[in-house]
Amino acid sequence: MLCSLLISACAGYHVSYRDNPLLSYDIRSIAVPMFVNRSVIPHVAAPMTQEIVNVLNQYEGLKVVAGESYETDSILLGIVDSAEKINETITAKSTEFAENKTALGNRQPFYYPSELSYNLQLQIILIKRPSPAELELFKSDIAQYLKLHPKAIINEVIPLSGSYQRVANDNVSGSGGDVNYVKNVGIFEKSVQDLSRSAAITFRDLILNAF
């Protein structure tokens, strides 16, 4: 009996989660162009866009169109931003001492940042049936001041914080004196992917579920 009740409760929650949360605004379709990246960190817009699209695709009764389209009931803009300087966006959380590396050659051991943290923000703007001129206005630097615009259904900023570990490996194929940081690109990309999923969950829980 208890098992049946739990299944019933979970099923009810599942159905509620999958209902179109924007139906009360007469929005049944939504276009999602590639997010704009204004941050100092490259290649963060694509995973952010994809994870938000994944969330929207989970709602029944809401058609999601990739790219910029004026045929839909609404357009969702995303703007990724950060501090202006890289050293204000990415900071070292911890350091390690590089020693006994076969590739150090004659170099002295040194400290390097082994764990880095970074801060971004994602502005989400949902506009109901915008004109091309209105869409360009929301893409501009004054978008944050347009919260009371009559076509702005959502205009919120999500703060994001991520971190990743750097790996120092020997460059045994070189002539010595070099320390290569390998795997770091992949490690950072995974961190951005995880951060994008976190942003999508926040978008779902704090924004979409509020409707």
Short description:
By secondary structure, the protein is an alpha/beta fold.
Task: Describe the fold and architecture.
By secondary structure, the protein is α/β, with parallel strands linked by helices. The chain has one domain: Double Stranded RNA Binding Domain, CATH 3.30.160. 31% of the residues lie in helices and 30% in strands. The protein is built from five helices and nine strands. The protein has helices at 2-18, 45-56, 86-89, 132-139, 184-207; strands at residues 29-32, 36-37, 63-66, 74-81, 90-98, 110-128, 152-165, 169-170, 179-180. The strands form two sheets. Strands 1, 2, 3, 4, 5, 6 and 7 form a seven-stranded mixed β-sheet that branches. Strands 8-9 form a two-stranded antiparallel ribbon. A hairpin with an 8-residue loop joins strand 8 (169-170) and strand 9. The longest helix is centred in the last third of the chain and has 24 residues, at 184-207. The protein is elongated, with a radius of gyration of 22 Å. It starts with a helix and ends with a helix. 22% of the residues are buried.
Please render the helix and strand layout as text.
Blueprint: H1 2-18, E1 29-32, E2 36-37, H2 45-56, E3 63-66, E4 74-81, H3 86-89, E5 90-98, E6 110-128, H4 132-139, E7 152-165, E8 169-170, E9 179-180, H5 184-207
Parallel strand pairs: 1-3, 1-4, 2-4
Antiparallel strand pairs: 4-6, 5-6, 6-7, 8-9
Helix pairs in contact: 2-5
